[in-house]
Design goal:
With 599 residues, this protein is of the alpha+beta class. The protein has 14 helices and 30 strands. Helix 9 runs antiparallel to helix 10.
């Protein structure tokens, strides 16, 4: 817990709990304001974050004399919110169960457990339990049964939710004041339980879940610099993986706006090939191999035939049609409409994803000996080379997913080069470079084309797209992907030009030119990390570390980042927590540590 954190400041003051099946966002006051069950992409059962009138939540009301603090249990995603005054004190321990059974299967049920732990005195509070199923599309009714409270919606769709508790169910549901004179539990379950569930069962699930997360974290190396931030970010990335298929989500939410009152609101509960491939490579650097194997399995299942075209993104179960629609009856986060489910970007053409996926495949082949998998991956490698060879000269939507005009984006071209470069390396690893010989001229052609058309003499930088004067933070990735060395004069000039043009008050624009929705007004968090990493690599180490330390101050009280940060207020915006932001934090911190270890 950060004692100086100002909870009165509007921000995404949330912790995330989850179990690699779904997740819940819990406010600093212990209110569950977002949760979808049974899976990440299911309709919400609590959506107060998107509509504080009809969205639904599970809130605890205490007298104003209570001081509230919040933290994670060390090396876990178990969230502990403490309520304390001079005489009375209690904790709410929130988690979603996850642990390995004796059979080896992971137990990750679609449920949230809340343990009300008495610390001293006789705390008093009221409960507001207000689930709104199916994205609040209709009326949810609650009924008290002998063993549980059931919530039912019978509108456009039928759905149910079950709550088990040791509290008096009538008082709990009616919002009558409760006196905590012993430990109690609440279990919110998507499924009706066959066996009775009591406080001891909750404590058992708690112990098992705590052991699971601490064991997982123990596999991560300890770092001299920023170890806590690396661990928290790694746990967050793990939480955004969907174990059933190996998919990696971009974020746990939908429609948290990039700017308050505007329409840049998207559903991020899907698996982008680009983002996910970056995530698994970073997490693998921390020693977690299973996430890589699961993701590669997901990719192989997406393209069972050689002529299968790869989309830029898929559903967590491999769904290909992610048709976008708006929920107009919800007023949106801080009144920012529309609320969207689905994402129309799935039909876009983005050439950069091939290079990033190929980079992940190359990394997997280096790290893991598995001839059968390598054989399947080799078919994908050859297919990607064919696609890139036939498409790299064409314009696309780019990494930022412009919804209108296609352009010759520099980043897309660089990643096409990466695709061929890694394919050549894979060929040398598994077939003695037979195919590499015929692919090397293509790699050279793409490289020379970028050097010729993306460099702008006036700006002394590689620009956003061919024949453009606009700068773009994505171009900074030329060095991490091996296109240019950090000592290359043109790369150094590009970094300095981008810093001068796009850095504002320690935060980065991704670009400044007008896009489909006007001029961007918030900072894209991942871009700030990219600039810091680039400055560090070109030798401006003190400046980079100062910027990094400053950027960390803009996380919330639990060291979590969203997609964006508002330049003026410094509040976080965009979907939350954002995989992109946390993978870039880890990557940058790892590079700091690598340089330290080499001295």
């Amino acid at each position: 817990m950060c004692p100086k954190y100002d909870f009165k400041k509007p921000n995404l003051n949330y912790g995330i709990v989850g179990n690699c099946r779904s997740a819940a966002l819990i406010n600093y006051d212990a209110s569950i304001d977002w949760c979808c069950l049974p899976n990440f992409d299911s309709p919400s059962v609590f959506a107060n974050i998107l509509d504080d009138e009809i969205g639904g939540h599970f809130k605890i009301l205490c007298h104003k004399t209570y001081n509230i603090t919040q933290k994670y249990s060390e090396n876990t995603c178990i969230l502990i919110t403490t309520f304390s005054n001079n005489h009375d004190e209690f904790e709410i321990i929130d988690f979603m169960p996850r642990y390995q059974k004796e059979s080896g299967v992971f137990y990750s049920p679609p449920e949230i457990i809340r343990i009300f732990k008495l610390l001293k005195g006789e705390p008093r509070f009221k409960i507001v339990y207000d689930p709104r199923l199916e994205y609040s599309n209709g009326i949810t009714n609650n009924y008290i049964k002998e063993r549980f409270i059931v919530s039912v919606i019978d509108q456009e769709n039928h759905d149910t939710l079950y709550l088990y508790t040791s509290f008096n169910k009538k008082k709990f549901l009616n919002g009558t004041e409760l006196i905590l004179n012993k430990d109690h539990f609440v279990n919110i379950s998507y499924h009706e339980k066959i066996k009775p569930f009591e406080i001891n069962d909750s404590l058992f699930e708690f112990d098992k879940t705590k052991v699971y997360w601490r064991n997982w974290c123990s596999k991560t190396p300890t770092f001299k610099l920023y170890n806590y931030e690396i661990i928290r970010s790694a746990i967050t990335l793990k939480l955004l993986t969907y174990e059933k298929t190996g998919a990696v989500l971009a974020a746990a939410t939908t429609s948290i706006p990039e700017t308050i009152g505007e329409v840049r609101n998207w559903d991020y509960r899907f698996c982008w090939i680009r983002d996910s491939s970056m995530v698994i490579k970073v997490v693998a650097k921390l020693g977690h191999k299973k996430i890589v194997k699961d993701y590669i399995k997901y990719i192989l299942n997406l393209i069972p035939e050689k002529n299968e075209k790869l989309q830029i993104m898929y559903g967590i179960n491999g769904e290909k049609n992610l048709k976008e629609k708006t929920l107009d009856y919800l007023k949106g986060y801080m009144g920012s409409k529309p609320v969207r489910i689905g994402n129309a970007a799935y039909i876009q053409k983005q050439n950069d994803m091939y290079g990033i996926l190929m980079d992940a495949i190359h990394f997997q082949i280096i790290k893991f000996d598995d001839d059968d998998k390598h054989q399947e991956l080799w078919s994908i490698v050859k297919s990607i080379v064919w696609v890139v060879a036939n498409n790299w000269k064409l314009p696309d939507k780019g990494i930022w997913e412009y919804r209108n005009e296609d352009r010759h984006f520099t980043f897309s071209k660089v990643l096409c080069w990466v695709a061929i470069d890694r394919a050549i390396k894979v060929s040398k690893l598994i077939q003695n470079g037979i195919s590499a010989q015929k692919w090397e001229p293509l790699r050279k052609e793409i490289f020379e084309d970028i050097i010729k058309n993306a460099w702008n003499e006036k700006k002394e930088a590689f620009t956003q797209s061919y024949n453009s004067e606009h700068l773009d933070a994505s171009v900074l990735l030329m060095e991490p992907y091996g296109f240019l060395d950090s000592k290359n004069e043109k790369y150094i000039k590009t970094v300095k030009a981008i810093e001068k043009d796009l850095l504002k008050d320690g935060l980065m624009y991704r670009y400044k030119n007008v896009d489909d929705f006007g001029l961007p007004t918030s900072s894209f968090t991942v871009c700030s990390f990219w600039l810091i990493d680039s400055l560090f690599k070109i030798g401006e180490e003190k400046k980079a570390i100062k910027l990094f330390d400053n950027l960390l101050k803009f996380s919330n009280h639990l060291n979590l980042f969203s997609e964006d940060i508002d330049f003026k207020s410094k509040r976080m915006l965009g979907n939350f927590p954002q995989a992109y932001s946390h993978l870039a934090l880890i990557d940058t911190a790892l590079n700091f540590n690598l340089k330290l270890d080499s001295k």
